[in-house]
Amino acid sequence: MTSFKDLGLTPDIQLAIDELGFTEPTPIQEEGVPRLLAGHDVIGQAQTGTGKTAAFGLPMLQYLDPANDEVQAVVLTPTRELCIQVTQALRSYAEHLDVEIVAVFGGAPIKSQQAQLRSGAHVVVATVGRMKDLISRRSLVMTAARFVVLDEADEMLDLGFLEDVEKILRMCPSGRQTALFSATMPPPIQKLADTFMYDPIMISITPEELTVDKISQAYVEVSNRDKTEKLIEILKAEDPEQAILFCRTKIGATRLDRDLRNRGLDVKALHGDLSQGSRDGVMIAFKGHRVKLLVATDIAARGLDVDHVTHIINYDLPNSSDTYVHRIGRTGRAGRTGRAITFVTPEQKKDLEQIKRDVKTSITSWESPEERIEHAPPPRRRPRRSEEEAPDQKPEDVETPAKEDAKSEASSSEVPEVGDGQTKLFINRGRRSGIEEEDLRWALKEGAVLEDTSISNVRVLDRFSFVELDTDKAERTVEFLDGTKLKGSEIRVEVARK
Predict the structure, then answer these.
(1) What distance in Å separates the CA atoms of residue 129 and residue 279, rounded to the nearest whole number?
(2) What's the domain count of the chain?
(3) Is 70 exceeded by the pLDDT of residue 204?
(4) 218 and 201: one domain?
(5) Number of helices and strands in the chain (H, E)
(6) Are 299 and 317 contained in the same domain?
(7) CB 432 within 8 A of CB 460
(8) Domain of 161?
(9) Does the pLDDT value for residue 70 go beyond 50?
């Protein structure tokens, strides 16, 4: 397994990487960093969340000459949100370097940005419009910019910025090194690369390689007329911690936002018709966990990276398989599981089948959490002790999954004693999987049909949990719950051994 230490980074950059806790590069970093360090032009086809900022940022920082106060590197971004996000990341990577990284974007006073540039900037991260404006005012000179990055190029195309991007590239030195990153590669972006890049190396992190295995995927067949009612039913059943509801158009997003607000739901909209200040407010509120539901268009949601999104709902079917993967990849972040639900009209079933073939994934018909528990496959039969133990082996000597998983935590968390007539069950999920005590009590009551009086104790630890209940209910509880899903995670349930 490649580590960051194998990529040839300087000690100061490696120190910052170590302090950030990065050990193993992502695929786009493992392939992109060495090639950019070697001086090649690179095209990276990769979605948000694959680590592409570090893939171009680390080689860029290593390339800089701190003694030269000219602008040596430029990163072009389509939106203010992405501009800020990239700047924050680059500054963290450059913690131990004597370089200045300046962000310039619309919606902020241009005079203060001009002052920052006059003070010296080695790297400029910019939105297309503001960079063009600063160049026209001669506040930004590109003659020394020999490292240029186009981030989220397909969104620049969607926003109509491609002509401006071409003008900016023509102002950069012809001997520059160029990196282009894009979730998709439509013909205009390919033409841009052919025109302005020199013998680029293509790195493609395809949908099949993206982490969708932790995302439970389902579809709902519904007519356009009934979509809003069905959405409200699903939101009530799924009860997401946070969810993004994707619409195809700004008009559709505005309409859905209004309809959900009228029903009293906690929702905000994010689309291109909002002012920059309004968009910033929505982003801050959603990232701060103060809004539960976000109605968004694909373009507006670019650069939105929130760990606690538990559900993605494709209210409108995406128009491509790449867009589908890009959308659902916004859940299941930071090692968590996620759930993606896609609405399709009867006429769109063939389009859904194409997505399933392209992404090579299973998308099943939606069931409520109660139905998923009821229809879950029965647990595997466990061998009797006589089948799994040697004749001279004592029951407590058998190494169970529960014992293996619990070893590291057992030293700091004593397992409580069980009272008479009570049996302790082990569940292989805990707080890391987003599971709380009320979740387990709900599963016990709804899935195993237990009364509160049968449950004497529930204890949720970091990586697993214990439940104590009436002994005569234990076997039935294991049978009903083992192998089902809770909060998007498959749970294993077994009788705990001392």
Answers:
(1) 17
(2) 3
(3) yes
(4) no
(5) 19, 20
(6) yes
(7) no
(8) 4-205
(9) yes
- Judge if 201 and 226 occupy the same domain: no
pLDDT digits (tens, 9 = 90+) for 264-278: 898 999 887 777 778
Q: Are residues 245 and 356 in the same domain?
A: yes
Q: Which helix (H) or strand (E) holds 365?
A: strand 364-365
Does residue 238 form part of some domain? Answer: yes
In this structure, what DSSP letter does residue 198 have?
A: S
Is the distance from CB of 179 to CB of 41 less than 8 angstroms? yes
Residues 164 and 16 in one domain: yes
Question: Percent helix, strand, coil in the chain (nearest 5)?
Answer: 40, 20, 40
Distances (CA, A) of 488 to 238, 309, 387, 492: 10, 12, 33, 13
Instruction: State which of 154, 188, 205 marks the end of a domain.
Output: 205
Q: Which strands sit side by side in the sheet containing 338-344, from one edge to the other?
A: 267-270, 293-297, 243-247, 311-314, 338-344, 215-221, 364-365
Judgement on whether residues 105 and 185 belong to the same structural domain of the protein: yes
Asked if residue 328 is part of any domain, the answer here is yes
pLDDT (average), residues 186-210:
83
Cα 83 to Cα 76, 124, 343, distances in angstroms:
8, 10, 32
Q: Which amino acid belongs to residue 453?
A: T
Write down the H helix ranges in 210-249: 227-238
Report the amino acid identity of residue 55.
Answer: A
Residue length of the chain: 498
Q: List all residues 6 or more positions away from 472 whose beta carbon is below 8 Å from its beta carbon.
A: none
Residues 368-396 have pLDDT tens digits of 765 665 554 444 444 444 444 444 443 33
Q: Mind listing the pLDDT tens digit for each residue in 309-319?
A: 888 999 999 88
Last residue of a domain, one of 347, 366, 385: 366
My answer on whether 200 and 241 are in the same domain is: no
pLDDT at residue 414 in the model: 39
3-14 mean pLDDT: 90
Single pTM value for the model? 0.53
What gap in Å lies between CA 106 and CA 104, rounded to an integer?
Answer: 7
> In this structure, what are the phi and psi dihedrals at residue 221, rounded to the nearest 5 degrees?
-90, 120
Is position 335 within any domain?
yes
CA distance 478 to 427: 10
DSSP string of 40-102, one letter each residue: --EEEE--TTS-HHHHHHHHHHHH--TT--S--EEEEESSHHHHHHHHHHHHHHTTTS---EE
Percentage, residues of the chain above pLDDT 90: 38
Decide if 115 is inside a domain. yes
Residue type, 258: R
